[in-house]
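Sanity check

After download, print the first record. It should look like this:
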Amino acid sequence: MGNNRTVSKTIGFAVLFIGCLTVLYVTTMYKLTWILPIVCIWVAIQLGVYLKSIITLDQLFRNIMYALLLSTFLNQSVISVNVGAFSLFLYRILLLLAIVLYISTALYKKRIVEDFNHSGLSYIWLFFGGWILYGSISVLWSISIIASIKYMFLLIMGIAFVYLASMTFKTRQQLKLFLAGWLGMTVLLMGIGFVNYFFSIQLPSSGLYGASIYKLSYPTAVFFNQNDFAVYLGISFFFFLAVAKNAKRPILKGSMLVLSVMVLILLYLTESRAAMLAVGGGGLVYLFLLIPKRWKKIILCTLSGMFLLGCLLFANRGIAKFQMLIDSAGEYGLNEVLPSNLARINLLRNTFYYLLDSYGFGIGAGNIPYYLEHKSYFPTGNVYQVHNWFAEIAGNFGLVIVLGYLLMLVYAFIEFYRIYQSINSGTDKMLLESCMIGMVAFLISSISPSSVMNLYFHWVFLGFVLSTLSVYKNRKLES
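Expected structure tokens:
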């Protein structure tokens, strides 16, 4: 009897869903965008009612989060519809649905405070809440209010994913599924990247779509440009490497090694110098983790001594070289095209002056592009994004927020390292190495993209890192 009822509900929902898709198609065809939110809300309600009849709210939320995780890597290449100043696509739709489900379930079971405290990351959540609050207040002194609202929308969506991830992935087994989802989607994106290179075909979501023929062979997959893709590949390389190192089955170990080599090849084809530097820097930190404990202090002291000696010997030459670059960057007019390295120097110089002008408080969420376009101190060759994640945070939100963000990452790395020193399990090492070396790769390569705020995989990676930190701080080492 129960099965017949389920079949009837499924058929009824399928008919209703097809009808909604038809309405959605008609509204898109005739550009009746005002109907789209109503249709989407109606579909979401009917989907929720149907799923609630066959699974619990907790199961539904968890399944939505897994779907959300996979959809993140598709970026805006699936179901992208413009609604006024914003665009709706699969990731945002699923994230909104997940937020509604979590709040509904948590309020119904009266566990919001319990979830917050039990994560073991209370101070980190307070920092994120302070970031959102400060960003919202900064709208008051922003020149471009629309840019601030759009930027805050991206920030809130990103932080929401990070929080929901930590509420979802609470065991080692779930973290392994999280990592498996990342690696599986990476294989798909690598395939698209190689298609970009060999066949000079770009997806419409790429900024190179319709560009000159010599640019069409850059691997971009579903990202806007090759630099964004390179940051993602840099993190993924160490994920593959960590699995290969700690896997017990030879087939899995061999396949992960092959995939890591393919990632390196694709990374080289993007021609992203920052991402290649990230692989080198991450590789050095990885080697440091693997060497015997008794040698670590000796090597660390030796490297520190060599670094200080190098600074003493080459400081004057380095300063002179840097000053020459700054002088060269100042020789161009405001509308002239600059070489990439000189443009980046001037972008950072402008951002530094904006920070001084705002007394360290930042010029307001999302306002750096407006300032670079209309209030530029130094020429940037008509480039209006700062191309440095930490400068982006500092320029928009001020010194307190960027220092808080850095302290969060440093704290997470130190905690991971402490735990890493005391565990022997291959699964534990795989998860901790992925987080630690992935963080190093991200920190270095984040100077490459024009903006990191709208790179959704960055928030997924941060969600993975903080979910892992929460699990290990609570010692939930379930099999």
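If your output differs, re-run the checksum step. Summary of this record's structure: Residues 293-329 form the longest helix (37 residues).
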